[in-house]
Specification:
2 domains, binds zinc ion, 6-stranded mixed sheet, disordered N terminus, 394 residues, disordered C terminus, 4-stranded antiparallel sheet, 11 helices, globular, Copper Amine Oxidase, Chain A, domain 1, Aminopeptidase, 33% helix, alpha/beta
């Protein structure tokens, strides 16, 4: 299909971008682009108390400090929050050297990343349903060394031990080389009370590009584009079971990605969104982890190393435990910087004592301020089939 880019660009360039004007103190400065609410980075930075130069220079911008930060690196579908890449549902728009972010992405990604303790429907859990991707006749990706279905099975054995050592009960969707449909995997999670769901996979790159690094997927919010989508279509407005846990699934995904990147020096391919069956159909917080590229030489050799896979399992377990701490005790999950500062050589544990206080202060801010908005979370237009999303930069 030929992407219908021209009408969107024309709309953006000709009619879609009103001038940015200074907002009154404390008010959101809404800019309508393609019938969607956008907010300026200045507005967002002011609300969260992030300091720095908000101008986008050479496609880059960074506001904030070691306690909380937002960074733009040129890809309109990405914002880095506290050092971890987040994929947005709608593209960042640059206007007058300032980035504008959709109100949807502020509510569904940036706010829960900056203030996870403000997520309203988090429930304590004591069981983790772990799903080893593929199995039986479904081999998954393959390298010269082996099949994805075998590597995932090996990782979940270590992950089970690591989670049990952290006091969590574990249910496996498969404990041997057997085939289960995606629906059967989701059903096992749905038959388990008091649980979260984690599916383990390894990636493949069919085009031979040297992609590498970790991806963690959470369910795409209703009416939004998945990371791989170019369009929002009418059927994406239908509510799915997984949408009841959007924010919790996102927080679980972000906790796990922070742990992975904080403990293993691999590439950050971001917290992503997808409507995979195991995310869409599960009635619980659910994520799918791609633990590197099996088909890529350097990543593939690491995945083939059992010691590396054990580290991966421990980092996954730490991320889940960090999310459990948030769900049960409302403690902010550990961030990339927390993991890395704990691992500094020779100096022992160095955690900036003001960091947690500064993060706690973020949670003392009110819900997203809506004084000048008609309703607090009326994020979705009534219907928007066929809305074209700006293509991502690969
Ligand atoms: Zn897979």
């Amino acid at each position: 299909m030929v992407p219908r880019i021209a009408p969107l660009l024309a709309a953006l360039l000709i009619v879609g971008l009103p001038l940015i004007t200074k907002a009154a103190d404390g008010a959101w400065q809404i800019v309508k682009i393609e019938n969607r609410d956008y907010l300026t980075i200045q507005n967002i930075a002011d609300f969260y108390g992030l300091r720095g130069d908000i101008r986008v220079v050479d496609h880059r911008m960074l506001v904030g400090d070691a306690h909380a930060s937002l960074e733009f690196n040129g890809n309109p579908r990405e914002i880095t929050v506290n050092g971890v890449k987040q994929w947005l549902s709608f593209p960042v728009v640059i206007r007058d050297n300032q980035a504008l972010v959709s109100r949807f992405d502020l509510a569904k990604t940036i706010d829960p990343a900056l203030r996870p303790t403000m997520i309203s429907n988090l429930q304590p859990f004591h069981t983790v349903v772990i799903d080893a991707g593929h199995g039986g006749q479904d081999m998954g990706a393959s390298s010269v060394s082996g099949y994805e279905k075998s590597y995932t099975l090996d990782v979940i054995a270590d992950l089970k031990k690591a989670l049990e050592a952290r006091g969590l009960k574990v249910i496996l969707t498969r404990a041997n080389d057997s085939y289960l449909s995606l629906e059967q995997r989701a059903q096992i999670a749905n038959d388990t009370a008091d649980a979260v769901f984690l599916s383990v996979h390894f990636n493949s790159e069919p085009n031979g590009r040297a992609a590498n690094g970790f991806e963690v997927y959470a369910m795409t919010p209703r009416g939004a584009a998945s990371t791989g989508d170019f369009m929002v279509t009418a059927d994406q407005f239908k509510p799915m079971p997984g949408n009841e846990y959007d924010d919790a699934s996102f927080a679980l995904a972000n906790s796990v990605q922070n742990s992975l990147l904080g403990q293993m020096p691999e590439g950050d391919r971001g917290v992503r969104r997808a409507r995979f069956a195991v995310l869409r159909l599960v009635h619980a917080p659910a994520i799918l982890v791609e633990g590197g590229f099996l088909t890529n030489g350097p990543d593939g050799s690491k995945i083939n190393d059992s010691a590396w896979r054990q580290k991966l399992a421990v980092a996954l377990a730490d991320g889940v435990a960090s999310f459990q701490d948030l769900s049960e005790h409302h403690r902010p999950p550990k961030l990339l910087a927390d993991y890395r500062s704990e691992r500094l050589p020779l100096t022992g544990t160095i955690v900036d004592p003001s960091a947690n206080a500064a993060r706690a202060a973020l949670s003392c801010l009110p819900l997203l301020p809506t004084a000048n908005l008609s309703s607090s979370f009326a994020l979705l237009p009534a219907s928007e089939p066929g809305f074209l999303i700006q293509p991502t930069i690969p």
